Amino acid sequence: MAKNHGPSIKNDEQYEALRDEGYSKQKAARIANDPNSGKKGGKAENYEDRTKEELYDKAKEVGIGGRSKMTKAELIKALRNN
């Protein structure tokens, strides 16, 4: 049974699995709290196909700092590595 990480983590089991795989606490929490995580489908747009504004909004959503000065390529890199 997964440990209860409190109300800030919505899916404790997924959070623990991600931490065991080496994900940071921040990234594991973000994934475990996303209601769409774990769903299959592969229908997300590639980052390269999105506009800079869409990438900026996604970076804002996940809390990437310095995004206002980033180029589209830098936003893509930050989103992939965060």
Automatic annotation (TrEMBL):
Residue ranges of the TM segments: none
Ranges for region Disordered: 1-51
Domain named Rho termination factor-like N-terminal: residues: 53-79
Compositionally biased residues, Basic and acidic residues: 10-24, 42-51
Gene Ontology biological process terms in this record: DNA-templated transcription termination
Superkingdom, natural source: Bacteria
InterPro entries: DUF7218 (IPR055642), Rho-like_N (IPR011112)
Record-given protein name: Rho termination factor
Species in which this protein is naturally found: Owenweeksia hongkongensis (strain DSM 17368 / CIP 108786 / JCM 12287 / NRRL B-23963 / UST20020801)
